[in-house]
Design brief:
The complex is a heterodimer of chains A (about 500) and B (about 210). Chain A is an alpha/beta fold and about 500 residues long. Chain A is built from 13 helices and 23 strands. In chain A, helix 7 crosses helix 11. About 0% of the residues of chain A have low confidence. Chain B has two domains: about 80 residues, Methionine synthase domain (Methyltransferase, Methionine Synthase (B12-binding Domains), Chain A, domain 1); about 120 residues, Rossmann fold (3-Layer(aba) Sandwich). Chain B contains nine helices and five strands. A five-stranded parallel β-sheet of chain B has the order 2-1-3-4-5, with helices on both faces. The chains are: A alpha/beta (about 500), B alpha/beta (about 210). Chains A and B meet through helix 4, helix 9 and helix 13 of A and helix 4 of B.
């Protein structure tokens, strides 16, 4: 057998070892592996022809005859045996999610020359580089860990099944690349970066530091490390030889340092307010006077496009807004192209429109098998059910926090929505489908975690405040909470 | 019979109070308890189960229907015991150790009860041995395992192994389910049945017994 075989990937020739999985040669920042390579999510489709391993049962189920004739394969299940031509599906670029909105604060740089703020999101990495007087550059990149699974739990599972080192290496490489690229863009030497402030959820910080994630994998879910500490660049294998790295303090195993940072940067002035980061994991914080109560709900990936039959990320070709025009359902597509799928903000709008047109009733029953939104893009009955679970979880999380604090939604003075996805949703439609409480004052925070991480660099007492927040905040476990179960059932209804 | 039909219809709409009244009325009219159960309550749940499978109704509707069924079944219990009516079979159910999710598990439990099974609910975070001990002590035909986390579904394999070790593997069928579970996984760990939803789980259980 030959040591290497030549193949082409998107027209570029490449040498690979025989028997290599196609998924292993795709770009590392690819976001195709929602199920971590189990052949379940069917999102890693490529077009491949040549000497390949035989079709698996999962692929036969996933594709119809015309798909197979076109050469569609699941890259996580297909091995390269000899010469092959492989084409990936075209991907547009992501919308930037590094928008930061600062509160008023006392500025006092905590670095000498340059400081770097980073948010390690489960899906996206975002970074800003600060000079003494200004923001020099901001960059985002895919979290390279995505190939170990789209959600935190799948990655934790991969880690405890022997991939821990690989996962740690991949995030360290991802951060190193991002920082190096940023320094180049800002035209500064890496050695003059003397402070790095990193926000991230608990699992992300575990992976980054190489901490054993066993304790995050099962009940009672008690984290044995909550960070809020300084480590050296060497420990994290970062290329910044003079940087001290600060890791944001986490509140609990599933309410992480990103939320602490979001609370810090939101600078909530109201007496009673809710803060929610709506994503795969919806973290929610209730502030009542001096008390902070938090929870984490597993909304699932429906709002990030995964799991729905035509779901996708918010990139070119995605329906991102749906509205009713002249009595008909109309769609806006990112990049104004032919629609190829639907992203989270589009999903929320679409449901609101279907309810208004009475094509969908409040129990989630869809009159027809599927509703075409535009072109070939549709939502079907099981998509609706998945969305009900997702929005029900977020809403029920909010309702549970209010109930345990003896509050009703009318007492919530303001709802803060953090996170990239949150900033794109239509407020009225989010209320109409029952994703969020009917609160009159809503503020969108953008990437509040990144903003908080930057405040650690730029303000005198940012670190102290963050650590106080993390210490003070209490977490409620929802999965076995009877109040949550009841609220969840109610919140599934539209 | 019209009264039993009325019970079934009200159960499907989740009208637990009316279901309770109608069951009492049926008892007073000397309709045999097993007939009220079969043609009133269970037939109503069967309709809900079928609709659930077809995405026509969802978790909340199943829940209220099951609540109505339980209200009616409470009244029938002593009569059924007197009449020596046998249950379809006995199952123990629980969410595996390390996992606290119980909504999916509860749905399966309700659907099984809707098929006339006796179900012993072990709750959540249940150690493998507990399933085995219960199955032996209570003489269960089926062990139902639920897991919602990728990280906890591997515990299901421990239960299969524990059943082998205890020498009861040929006496019980092991059913697995939950969001991350697949048919492939079920086969890999040597469990007997995987179904994608609660109603299909109850159908599979009915076929076993």
């Amino acid at each position: 057998m030959k040591d290497f075989i030549e193949i082409t990937l998107d027209g570029i020739s490449k040498k690979v070892k025989p028997n290599t999985l196609i998924s292993d040669i795709l770009p590392k920042d690819t976001d195709h592996f929602f199920c971590g390579g189990k052949g379940i999510c069917k999102k890693c489709v490529v077009f491949a022809k040549g000497e390949l391993s035989p079709l698996t049962k999962a692929e036969e189920d996933a594709f119809d005859k015309s798909d197979l004739e076109m050469g569609k394969r699941l890259s996580c299940l297909t091995r390269i045996l000899g010469f092959a031509e492989i084409k990936t599906q075209k991907q547009g670029s992501d919308k930037i999610c590094s928008q930061t909105i600062f509160p008023k604060y006392q500025k006092e740089n905590q670095f000498q020359n340059y400081g770097v703020a980073i948010d390690i999101g489960t899906t996206t990495l975002a970074m800003q580089i600060y000079g003494r007087d200004e923001l020099l550059c901001e960059l985002t990149a895919k979290n390279p860990q995505a190939r170990f699974g789209a959600d935190v739990m799948t990655r934790i599972h991969a880690a405890i099944s022997g991939k821990a080192e690989e996962i740690t290496l991949s995030i360290r490489e991802g951060l190193s690349d991002l920082i190096s690229e940023g320094a180049k863009k800002a035209n500064i030497p890496l050695d003059l970066i003397d402070k790095i402030s990193i926000a991230g959820n608990t699992a992300m910080l575990y992976f980054l530091t190489g901490q054993n994630v066993e304790c995050l994998s099962r009940a009672p879910f008690i984290a044995d490390r909550l960070f809020g500490e300084t480590v050296s660049f060497e420990k994290l294998s970062l290329p910044t030889k003079n940087a001290e790295v600060y890791l944001s303090p986490c509140i609990s195993s599933f309410v992480g340092g990103d939320i602490t940072m979001a609370i810090l940067s939101s600078d909530i002035k109201e007496e009673i307010a809710l803060l929610s980061d709506i994503g795969t994991n919806g973290e929610i914080v209730l502030k009542k006077g001096d008390i902070l109560t938090c929870c984490s709900t597993a909304a699932g990936p429906a709002f990030e496009g995964a799991g729905l039959s035509m779901g996708m990320n918010g990139k070119e070709g995605a329906i991102d807004h749906v509205f009713i025009k002249d009595g008909k359902i109309s769609c806006h597509v990112i990049g104004d192209t032919e629609p190829i799928g639907i992203c989270g903000s589009g999903v929320i709008d679409a449901i609101a429109c279907l309810l208004e047109k009475e094509l969908l009733d409040e129990t989630g029953y869809l009159e027809d098998d599927e509703v075409i939104l535009s072109g070939n893009v549709y939502l079907n009955g099981s998509d609706i059910r998945m969305i009900q679970l997702a929005k029900g979880a977020v809403r029920a999380g909010m309702e549970t926090l209010m109930e345990v604090s003896n509050l009703s939604s009318s007492q919530i003075e303001r709802l803060y929505i953090a996170g990239g996805f949150g900033s794109y949703i239509n407020e009225e439609n989010a209320k109409k489908i029952g994703l969020i409480i009917p609160c009159e004052n809503i503020s969108f925070l953008g990437n509040a975690a990144l903003c908080g991480a930057a405040m650690i660099l730029l303000s005198k007492d940012g670190r102290k405040k963050a650590e106080e927040i993390a210490k003070k905040a209490k977490t409620i476990e929802l999965s076995d909470n009877p109040i949550f179960s009841e609220k969840y059932m109610e919140a599934m209804i539209f | 019979m019209e009264l039993l039909m009325e019970i079934s219809e009200n159960l499907q709409r989740g009208k637990s109070k009316i279901v309770k009244e109608l069951v009492q009325k049926a008892i007073d009219e000397n309709i045999p308890a097993d007939k009220i159960l079969e043609d009133g309550l269970l037939s109503g749940m069967a309709v809900i189960g079928e609709k659930f499978k077809n995405n026509e109704v969802y978790v909340p509707e199943v829940l209220v229907a099951a609540r109505a069924m339980n209200m009616g079944a409470e009244l029938l219990k002593p009569l059924l015991a007197d009449a020596n009516v046998k249950s379809k079979g006995r199952a123990c159910i629980g969410t595996v150790q390390g996992d606290l999710h119980d909504i999916g598990k509860n749905l399966v439990k309700m659907m099984l009860e809707g098929k006339g099974f006796e179900v012993i609910d072990l709750g959540t975070d249940v150690p493998a041995q507990k399933f085995i001990d219960t199955a032996i002590e209570q003489n269960c035909n089926i062990i139902c395992l639920s897991a919602l986390l990728t990280t906890t579904m591997s515990v299901m394999e421990d239960v299969v192994k524990a059943a082998e070790k205890a020498g009861i593997r040929d006496k019980v069928k092991i059913m697995v389910g939950g969001a991350p579970v697949t048919d492939k996984f079920c086969k890999e760990i040597g469990a007997d049945y995987y179904t994608a939803d609660a109603a299909s789980a109850a159908d599979a259980a009915a076929e076993i017994c």
